[in-house]
Amino acid sequence: MKKRIAVFVSGTGSNFKAILEKTEAGDINAEIVLVVSSNPTAGALSIAENSQIKTHVINFKDKSKINSEYVIVSDLLTVLNIDYIVLAGYIKILPAFFVKKYLGRMINIHPSLIPKFSGVGYYGHKVHESVLAARENESGCTVHFVDEGVDTGEIIMQAIVPVFGDDTPDTLAARVLIEEHKILPLALKKLCAD
Ligand code: GRF
Questions:
Q1: Strand pairing of 3-9 and 30-37?
Q2: Ligand 1 atom closest to Cα of 9?
Q3: What is the CATH number of domain 3-192?
Q4: Using a 6 Å cutoff on CB, does residue 109 contact ligand 1?
Q5: Where are the domains positioned within the chain?
Q6: Rounded CA gap, 11 and 141, in Å?
């Protein structure tokens, strides 16, 4: 039986696209049945719609209702019989009840070599700016299980890239992203084969 996957996104969705291509090609024993977005204009939503994948946008406008928004998502995941959640460029911190429910069944991609440049405040370009400021010789990306901490869950897979003297956050981010697109599908494949 194919594993049923929900992908959580906030932006362009290139990591989502990377796993979608592999699932559609039958390379991963999984089917993406839902895309959840924190952002109503995320590019990932149009990719999902083009592939006839159900989408759901979380409403973050009313801060007092965020928990109940996640209850709605949680119920939707139960109804859709979701086996695994992939956080693919999802920038929001999930509430504790939600993380608990999917412990061991939710993975995240982070654009650094965890434990380096990870945790609260390290997201998006801030990660790559910090790597350059620290004059690191190498960086990379990590797929890990999501636990109650920020970027603290068990590591599943990492890829390393060199850092060059003339790198900017953009050039480094682009080099890391190429590797993200390789290890996220590989990690999901591993998970769904178990
Ligand atoms: C990736 O670098 C991811 O690691 C980070 O945000 C970026 C998302 O890119 N958290 P995309 O939306 O998958 O294109």
A1: parallel
A2: 12
A3: 3.40.50.170
A4: yes
A5: 3-192
A6: 18
Q: Sort 98 into a burial class: Cβ within 10 Å, 0-12 / 13-18 / 19+.
A: middle
Which of 110, 128, 144, 181 is catalytic? The answer is: 110
Spatial CA neighbour of 184 closest among 13, 4, 19? 19
Residue nearest to atom 10 of ligand 1 (CA): 89
Written as tens digits, the pLDDT of the chain (194 aa) is: 999 999 999 999 999 999 999 999 999 999 999 999 999 999 999 999 999 999 999 999 888 899 999 999 999 999 999 999 999 999 999 999 999 999 999 999 999 999 999 999 898 899 999 999 999 999 999 999 999 988 899 999 999 999 999 999 999 999 999 999 999 999 999 999 96
Q: Could you count the other beta carbons within 10 Å of the beta carbon of residue 193?
A: 10
Q: Which atom of ligand 1 is nearest to the CA of 10?
A: 12
- Its pTM stands at 0.96
Output the DSSP codes for 64-76: GGHHHHHHHHHHH
